[in-house]
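Lay summary. Proteins are chains of building blocks that fold into shapes, and those shapes determine what they do. In this project we predict the shape from the chain. Here is one chain we studied, written as its sequence of building blocks.
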Amino acid sequence: MTSSSYEAVIGLEVHTHLMTRSKLFCGCSASFGSGPNENVCPVCLGMPGVLPVLNQYAVELALRVALATHSEVQTRSVFARKSYFYPDLPKGYQISQYELPLCKGGYIEIANGGESRRIRLVRIHMEEDAGKNLHEANYSLVDFNRSGVPLVEIVSEPDIRSAAEAGAYLRELRAILRYVGASEGRMEEGDFRCDVNVSVRRKGSDELGTKTEIKNLNSFRFVEKAITYEIGRQIELLEAGGRVTQETRLWDPNREETRPMRSKEFAHDYRYFPEPDLPPLEIDGQMLERVRAAMPELPAERRRRFQRDLGLGAYETAILTEDRAIADYFEALLNGGVIGSKTAANWTMTEVLRIVNETGKPLEEAVPPAAETRILLKMVQDGVVSLNAAKNAFSVMCKSGQPAAAVVARLGLAQVSDEAAIAAACDEVIAAESAKVAEYRAGRDKLFGFFVGQVMKAMGGKANPKVVNEILRQRLQS
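And here is the predicted shape, written in a compact code that computers can read:
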């Protein structure tokens, strides 16, 4: 047998923080980056006698996720106590949902290798996050700032068959979360993290193999590498006559391998029971309709519209719609119909994304308003400035905050389109290069670029290239 005789069966459990200002059951700040144990109170520290109070806005954000993933909202759901004892879980249990989650079913549509298919969801449920352990050589510390931050857990069916499909699923899910404003999806901050369940089976078999779980992966690349490694490890083990053990494993990015963490728990190990301090969560029709009415256009819908109405290709639409802010900026450039969709798309994908990536700032802080960028692109379209000059101007606009016209004037970037001045420069170059003129007229067409360069040099690089080309051809052919 070879690896081609096996099929991978993969399911993903994604935990993502909801974009609330306060925690799920108390008024402490849910912001990232505060000093250790600054955002804590008796409720999120699990002190005796305190009572949780549910954050309504967190529920509304969870409902956005449900609607965006075609999930069925349960009008009645129940919070439960999930008992396990970690140093970063101060109560000794986590408030989560189990038998009656907020949402059931749903799907996420992915495109991989030119084909589109649906990855089904099992459930979406709400829960609070645990704190964070900080390990040093001789001791460990606990930061409880994250304890109580609201999460949704999105659990997929085992419909994924490869590392590439897993990556496509996670990228689409994160885009959806960002579009609906439910989560920022910052993987480097632990804001969006993934547990992966992997098993293999012989192709053609309906029987599921023994799965392993890989915990707390916080980058797309790590997810894909961990899945690829684990598939290979399990196949190699089975081919050698061994047996896959159901266990939880960790990904070691330095060795690029998974390694055992602990034996895998089962649901009964957590001793779930209904949370006695919280009543059942009742979702009424008015609340659901209010959330539904505020839903934005989703990434998949926007991709289809960009291709259908704007004539953009699949690659362009994928780049432009990955982030809602980028897509909004691109569409703002098109307002008024002054700039074509291809021009706006190319500028957004190159110059706008370049500045955002270089500065690391949010788009609204990194680049000028779309109206100013549109003015600059109109200058290029009208021949007022060259494309290269516009790129220089845009960089200055991003740093200085000055409008396009002021930057172009201050830097003297306006092109010379005066035909008389350009014709005079062409005549001077032709007179000075009589030998090359003879060669060109004898059939050396490639010399035309040389003449263009000489004219541009003579005019300090400010001549309108289109006018230069037209006049030079006339002069050289006469």
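What the prediction tells us: The two ends are 75 Å apart (CA to CA).
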